[in-house]
Amino acid sequence: MDLRRFVLVTVLALISYLLWTAWQQEFPTPKAQPVASEELSLDNHGQQYPNITEDNTAAVRSDSDSSIFDVSPPVTQIPTGRLISVQTDVLNITIDEKSGKLIHAGLLKYPVSLDEPKHPVILFNDKPETQYYAESTLLTSNKELGDSDLIYQSKQKQYQLAPGQDKLFVDLVATNSHGIEFNKRYVFSRNNYAIGLEYSITNHSALNWQGHLATLLSRTDAKPQSKRFVRTYFGASISSDEKPYQKISFKKMKKENVSEKTQGGWAAMQQHYFLGAWVPEQHLQSHYFSRVSSAGLYSIGMYGPAIKIAPGNTQQATSTLYVGPEIPGVLEQLAPHLNMTVDYGWLWIISEALFWLMQHFYDIVGNWGWSIILVTMLVKLLFYPLSAKSYRSMSAMKKLQPKLLALRERYGDDRQKMSQATMELYRKEKVNPFGGCLPILIQIPVFIALYWVLIESVELRQAPFIFWIKDLAVKDPFYILPLLMGVSMFIQQKLNPPPPDPTQAKVMMFLPVMFTVLFMNFPAGLVLYWVVNNTLSILQQWYVTQKYSGNKGKKGNGAVTLEG
Question: Which of 324, 363, 404, 530 lies 20 to 30 A from 258 at CA?
Answer without folding.
Answer: 324
